[in-house]
Amino acid sequence: MLSNMKFVKQSLELNLFFMRIAKEHAIFLEAGLTSRDYKLACQANMLKNEFTQLLIETIRLSEGIISPEVAHSGELVTDLTLNAERETEFYSAIKIDSNVTRMELNLVQGRYDSDELVRTVAMLNNRAMAATNRIALFKSRLLNDVLTCKTFTTNYPLLIDHILREAKFYLRMLVKLQNREEMDLVKEAVYQEGFWNRIMAEHAKFIRGLLDPTEVKLFDTANDYGKKFDQLTQESLALTQNIGLLPEVSEKTLNATVGIRNFKKQGTEGLINCTIRSIAYPLLGDHVVREANHYIRLLKGYKNINREMDSIKNLENIYK
């Protein structure tokens, strides 16, 4: 069972990451709808505002609690986030409260806790679960309407399905925290590598599809990353049959994720500076950079598991 300290810290770190992700999902969905579906756009805007408010509350609770690893990972905000928000607000006319980003940029790490904070965080998690259920239902209905030609959007159906899976993943993690579950680290590493490798593969394919046809080199690079992460997805799914390969697959995945993160960051800079021809919003670029940074932090954390597994294998060899 998770201690109070772990429960508070892990809850706040998870919410800081995924509440911003969910808020931006709502922005992308709203921006992709036509004026005909203004009622759906209003629903998306309401969801954006709900997650913005939840994120503000989470930031205030997180002062002095989150770990330096999370604070410095670039998964909460990056040095490009403010500019990406400004440019996206300009292009879309969707209001984005950048004061929230400034609050996150100034977060400090360090202290802990009280019984009252534990109760407050548990209630925050419940509200986050309710909001995430609402946005998941919105995404699911929108996807169904798009697939049955009842609604048009400039977002790919795969992208809507992609962000629906992320909402379900967030819910899964919140439920585990509310139940105070201690993770089986090896099983969780295998599960998350399968999940995030597929996410990274799809990011590459979305980037490929949003580039202007004249951006041949960037198209080819994105295509190559799509293929690379498709292969890594298959390798991570196969780990359930051969867990001993986890260290090798994790190392390959870490190298590939650092590579695609750098590619995404360069692309985001190009979108902000108007040097890349694309139909992607700059905030979408920064969004996928942060998801890669989150995954890189996780993969680096798995190295301790992998070292333990290597030690076990070495002992096995000694006693053969």
Automatic annotation (TrEMBL):
Top-level taxon of origin: Bacteria
One Pfam short name: DUF2935
Protein's name in the database: DUF2935 domain-containing protein
Originating species: Clostridium ljungdahlii (strain ATCC 55383 / DSM 13528 / PETC)
